[in-house]
Amino acid sequence: MKAFWPFIVTENVTTRFEVCACVVGSALTSTNWQSQVDIPVVTQTPIPELAELVALLNLTPGRRLYEFVVQSGRVPDPARVPAAPSAELRLVPRSTSEVWLYLANGVEVPAEHLACGLVRLVVDADGRVFDAQEVTRGLFEVHACKGHKPPPNAYVAVRYRGYWYYIDDRDLASKAVFFLMLKMSRLDFKQQLLEKPVLTLPVAR
Description:
Blueprint: H1 21-24, E1 27-30, E2 35-38, H2 48-56, E3 65-70, E4 88-91, H3 96-103, H4 111-115, E5 143-146, E6 154-160, E7 163-168, H5 172-194
Parallel strand pairs: 3-4
Antiparallel strand pairs: 1-2, 2-3, 5-7, 6-7
Helix pairs in contact: 3-5
């Protein structure tokens, strides 16, 4: 399974399956009150990957349009919790903290830290060592190097346990993701300030 599709948790994904919308000619269309996913059948020949996608998402087969619904809470995996197929494509967006946790895969781990046990090796289902940076490769990458000062090509850097962790100033994708995450974190902080607890004090008569 491709690393850019990490949120399908099922053992039924075949090695041929790819969830690139462009492969099957999918498009997202919006109206004033709703959004729909358009999955047109571009050929008369059945597309195995498209049928697999519909089955994985527990969608009603044979439809061209599926309503796009943002839902709070977890959506049960239909492979583990059987349910009737639906015409709605339910999406549970990640929280800001979950996005930070996901992007942490893109941080380079010094070999010294691995050797002394500060960081655990990431392994796949078969027990083989997996490079977690491949999950966010080309999207978000943080490099590590030793030195008294941050490298001259660092866009932003922080020192931790003798290493400088930095985003390369030439890495436009990582800079854009970092800037977006800062904005999202500030929005979350403002929301927390607005949701102040109400203190009720009993008043004796």
